[in-house]
Structure formats: C-alpha cells, structure tokens
Amino acid sequence: MTKTSFKRGVVAGLTTGMMMGGAALAQDCTTKIGAVLPTSVDWGKPIAATAQYAVDLANEAGGVAGCKVEMVLRDSQVDPKVGVDAAKALVDLDGVQMLLGAVSSGVSMPILTSVTVPAGVMQMSCCSSSTAFTGLSQEGKTKGLFYRTFATSGVQAAVGAMVARDQGYKSVAILYKNDDWGQDIGKLVAKDLEALGISVTGSVAINDAQPSYRAEVTEALKGNPEALYMAIYPKEGTSVVREWLSLGGTQNMIVANALKSDEFRDNVGLQYLGNTIGTDTASPRSESASAFVSQYTAKFGSEPNGPGLSNSYDATMIGLLAMEAAGTGATGTEIAAKVSAVTDPNGTPITADAAGFSKAKEVLAGGGTVFYQGATGNVRFDDNGDVSAPAVMWSFTETGTEETQYISLEEVDAFMASVK
C-alpha cells in the first residue's frame, strides 16, 4: 500500500463518513457531536477519519439514544485561536454536548477553559498529554467534563530518558514546542535525564511558523550534545532538523510521537534519520488491540501507523457509549457522568465494533454497566480523567515506522518510579 493510496482511503473515509452509515439506519432524528481536529495537516486527517469510522459503526448499530449520530468536523489547524473559534461554533451554533478534541494540549487547554467547561460540554481528547490537565482536575476546574485516552506526557518523557540511557548518551539537548504540551514534556524529560545522570546541555523553545530556526538550533548546539531530544511537530521539525544537520549537529535523535509522520520523514530524508529513535504510548498486547488493527486495515487498506489513531477511535467510541448511557437529550455533564458506566471493570465486557456497541445498548437499557475493550485495551480512567499506558520505541522505515521495542505498563511504571 503506497502513501498515496493510503491518503485516498483516509479521504474516502472522511467523505463517506459524513453520509449515513448503512442500511441499518432508520432513525428519524439526528444527534450532533463536535470534533475539532487538525485536518489541514497530513498526520491529522487519519485521526479525524478514525473518529468518523467509530461514528459510522455506532450508526450501524442503530445510533445513539435512538438517533443517528452526525459528527460535525472543524479544522483546528493546530492553532489555539482557530481551535477555540471552531469549538465555540460547534457549541453555540450546532449545540453539541460532546466535543472530540483536540490534538495538542496547547489547543485542547484553551478550548477546555474558555469553551467546554463554561458551557457544560463534555470534552474527550484523543491526543493531549500535558500534566497540566491533571492539575486542573485536581483543583476542581474541569468540573469532571474532561477525559483523554492518551497517557500523560510523563510516559513519553520517561521513555525518552530510557532511550538516552540505553544508547549510552552522556549529554542531550532538548528542543520543545512552545505550548502547553511542549513545555510540559520538555520539563519532564529534562528532569528524568538528570535523574539518570545524563547532562542536559540546553533546553530551547520552538515557536510556530518562524522563517528560520537558526538561532534556536545554534543555542541548542552549545555544549556539543551527544544527542538531541525533540518534542515538536512535523512542519517545524523539518526546518529545525535541516538547520541542526547543516550546522553540524549529531544524527543521534530521540523524538516524541508528534514526529511519527511520513511528512517529516520524507521532507528531512530517511538517510538522515537512521539513528533516530521515536517514543510513543502503545496499546497493550491484547486481543481487543489486535482486533482494532485488523478492523482498521480492512477499512483503510493500511495498518494504523500514524500518531493517535487508536486513541481517537477509543475516545469517540467511549464518548458515544456514554451518550447512549445518558439517554436522549442529555447534557454534557450527564454524558460525562456516564463514562464510568461504560468503562466499568465489573461491567459486561464489550468489543470495540458495531456488534459490541449493539450489545452495550442492550446491557445499558437493562440498567447494567459495560467494560469497553478498545483499541488501546481495557480503558480505565482515574479520578482526573487520565489513563495509563504501555509504551514503544520505534524507528523510521521506507514505508512508515516500525516498532523496535515494547515496554509494558508495569515496566513503564517501574521506570517512572525509579527516576522519581
């Protein structure tokens, strides 16, 4: 499967997903959910397509609370202002009570604080990892309306430090995106590296859309680091790495999952990325996670190799199940309150497909609870709406990326405890 044909499959998924999900749809009412996702960037389209796929499966199972679900999708452009404006339109004009989004903590946070919490709308993020959300919840400022299916930045930061240790690097420079996510993971990885006795020669912020990053790269090169850690996005990442290499920087690079992108690989050149090791959270080695890979491949013609795809699927499915549990006309607060009823370890296990959704509808209608077995495993949220997850190390290949090491949840937790 070529990159071009994969993109065609994604576009087809987005296009057909806005139509009815199949002959099983007989509802005479429509319930809207909102989605603020970065469809204008190469790696964002599959995230949106995956969310729409979950909506299609729910509709195939008869919809939610007796109504067909329509996902109203707006592009965030990975820009906080654009994201907030999109979220406001979805809440004020479309009247959504559940919002999927966003990608990037720097976009999700202002949506949460200025749109969804004030309006009492539930927000379910697939791809926001900043620990600032945890702090906000602990202060009672999320009002129980925020959930995310992506583990906190602490996991990727710890695994990034683990990579540096395993590679024997004695010094590392850090380049991070200057937003909530980048600042958070940059701070955490610096702390973990230093806890391992690895010198952090510099930590430099990267702002969006600069004509040149020579000054930032020059600053990061001071101290002649053995390796570079990056928590930035593909567009800026391409420019940064080109500057880094042209100024004599090492090809020993450790990257967060935001750079797990064909766009970044192709624009930099695979020949310069041979020593690059990526990190990401991962699905557990479970039957439900394997089933999602097969399901996704059958739908889109390629395995889910991009960032956030399994997380996007689970975020959407869990949100829709909570809407089903809350019933017709439920408010965002009522929907959020039902998340525990569809991720209950003592509930009836259900699969992450149309058949599982149908079974969940029956169980919930009878007053029971269900335990969603998803693309990221058996999803369980803590009191702050956070999840834990295993992790992987990966490398770039000619056709995408490949996993090089799997780190179990127990191993992740043990390592994180050791660096604390």
Output the keywords:
Rossmann fold, 2 domains, 5-stranded parallel beta sheet, 16 helices, 45% helix, globular
- The second-level CATH architecture of the largest domain is 3-Layer(aba) Sandwich
Within CATH, the superfamily of the largest domain carries the name Response regulator
Number of helices: 16
The chain-level mean pLDDT equals 92
Number of strands: 15
Q: Quote the distance from N terminus to C terminus.
A: 44 Å
Quick gist of this model?
The protein has 16 helices and 15 strands. The protein is α/β, with parallel strands linked by helices and 420 residues long. It has a seven-stranded mixed β-sheet, sandwiched between helices.
Please characterize this protein's 3D structure.
The structure is a single chain. By secondary structure, the chain is an alpha/beta fold. The chain has helices at 3-17, 44-60, 80-92, 105-119, 132-138, 153-167, 180-195, 214-221, 234-246, 262-268, 287-300, 309-326, 332-337, 339-342, 354-365, 409-419, and strands at 30-37, 68-75, 98-101, 122-125, 146-148, 171-177, 199-206, 227-231, 253-255, 276-281, 348-351, 370-374, 377-378, 391-396, 401-407. The longest helix has 18 residues, at 309-326. It is globular and about 65 Å long. The termini are far apart.
